[in-house]
Protein 1
Amino acid sequence: MAVPKGKVSKARRNSRRANWKLSMPGIVACPQCKTMKLAHRVCKKCGYYDGKQVIKIEEEKQA
């Protein structure tokens, strides 16, 4: 059975766990309405994806 050679200190353990970073999500401009959206997803403002309308978005009324 595998047994650790010695106790790993809290500082060594915590510094090993601390070395990772979040990456920024891919944000691109929508080719239809030019608003910023997540890449490879339907635009929330106009409903287009890959040049085709996938979702029908209703216009908000100005009150």
Note: The chain has one helix and four strands.
Protein 2
Amino acid sequence: MIQITNLSKSYGSNKALDDISLELSYGIYALLGPNGAGKSTLMNILTLGLLPDSGEVLWQGQSIEAAGRDYRSILGYMPQQQGLYDGFSGSDFLYYIAGLKGIEKAWLPYEAQRVAELVNLRERLRDKISGYSGGMKQRILLAAAILGDPAVVILDEPTAGLDPKERIRVREIIEDMSGYKIIITATHVVSDIETIADEVILLKNGVIADSGSPEELCSKLDAPDGLESVYMKVFEE
């Protein structure tokens, strides 16, 4: 369980998050909103990359800052920016991330192969990342995020740069994991989350404009054409 209570964060006079409160249990939570809505700020706080100005985030009743290493050990994060080492092979990168996560060395070969298979990169693990396409780099980041079977997985634009076939594969991976994890994914692409999200959180100007299942939001906002219509009503009208 993750409890977010009265969370606020500002950059100078710009309020990126304004008194956000959420309660998250197992399932897929989609953060949906335009650029500047506060999605990345919220995820950076949840991954301990930023500290809030006020409010708190609790994991199993304990502050994530106080939990520190224990919280990080159950966390998988895929950033939007591809901070990769071009001189590494795919395997080198996964081993490096596994070391940071404290995964036992005896399990590393198996675990690297497992996640690489999931993201369709098993045959390219020995290749240098410098030779990867943008989509392959996106997939190796996803593989790194799910190393060690973390209980909380945070994905920032996980399907960016992928072709339609790989987008579907990533959606299937996310959906398959959702029964026993908290998965938080931010996206601009409504179709990537419409069929898999248990709850959609609409962020607008640092506040929660609305939230609910895709079906609930479509009904509430009179959007019979689906989440695309919800997005248009909330963010573009």
Note: The two ends are 35 Å apart (CA to CA).
Protein 3
Amino acid sequence: MKISNKVQHIIDELIDQYEFSDESSRPWIIGFSGGKDSTVLLTLVWMCLNRLKESNPNYKFKRDIYVVCNDTLVENPIISNYVDDVLSYIEKSASEQNLPIFVKKTSPKLDETFWINVIGRGYPVPNNTFRWCTDRLKIRPTANFLHNQIDEKGEAIVLLGTRYDESKNRERSIKKHEVKNQRLSPHNSSPNTMTYSPIKELQLEEIWYIINTFPSPWNFDNSILFKIYADANSDDYECPTVVTSKEHKSCGQSRFGCWTCTVVQKDKSMSSLIDNGQSWLTPLLTFRNQLQNERNGGSNRRSTRRNGQVSVSEDGVNQGNYTPEYRYSVLKRLLEVQRKVQLSKPEINLISNQELIAIQVLWNRDLFFNKTVTDLYKEVYGIELLTNNFKSISKIERKILKKECEDDLNLYGLIDNLISIQESKSLLVSNYGLNNEIEKLIESKID
């Protein structure tokens, strides 16, 4: 298949950088989202490795390449399932072709997931002025893997699928950090790390031409990716003018992200997916819109932040973290949406059991004992949420305790709540401030 001069130049440059320009064995790390740009980047890197192998049957690869995919745990389910399928093909094909390509999937720690922060701690959902999600859900998990590689190898090179053509802001950002006449640029936050943007000069039409024309080197069907973009396309997104068949008449550069994203005003890609037949996503979109509309409601917010700082607007509207009652209502609606979606997509979980248990821990530590996650789960699903492994005392022990305190039920309530707080030690949730929370509970009972 004929390769354009520009694409050939990128492959030649990749070969030179991999084999000749860099004498070290520092690994290459490719941030892979499964989208069009990272797919093209990995395709060209794969072609680079095959060229090196073809030139010398006994060639020994000098550096490993890690395909790192970050799962925020709240990705659009269609994209999440697609990416999981693609990663399995990449892993299998790289092994079969004896290429030094290794797949690594990262995700936020339990203590930093979206639902832990929103429902557990009461963080308002993100917006442009309080965009806490990017760091916790995306940057930290990948940075942890990167730092581990640097600790092991000493240095690393991160290959980016960014392009000038994406937007004027992206072009300015790339040019701001790149070193003139140099392929590699220092990473803006990670020491001993360089960045490399091989496809930065490719146009959107060229990206789609490569995807639609070149067979996937890991033997996946690229038409699936094209169809996802086509179904998610909105009228105001630019579409490629270079197509290779009648089926390639329309496709946008829609951006996929978290289905819970409230930073954007409207989730156009999910709306378009629904309009193009994925109606089962409707409850997710409705719930996401509710989170956005309810974000600044004073009745849903406390008058203080989690650190105790007063947060009330000039006109008297509370702007602190979410109240326990509102957090409970969000969890109830989330579980109801999950149950509804699972009627047609039983494999989809919008929140994990670990997160549910950790949320209960955080509610306990916020002295919110009036409602429990286990009772709510049973109300929605009709079955018990398995939490026995995290209980520090058994039901029999609790029954004995209650009997011994039958003359002072307030004392039983205090001990029971203290035990609930103490149980947080058995979970992967920070114990920071645990002593203070125990003291606050005792003081509240004494008062």
Note: Residues 235-253 have pLDDT under 50 and may be disordered.
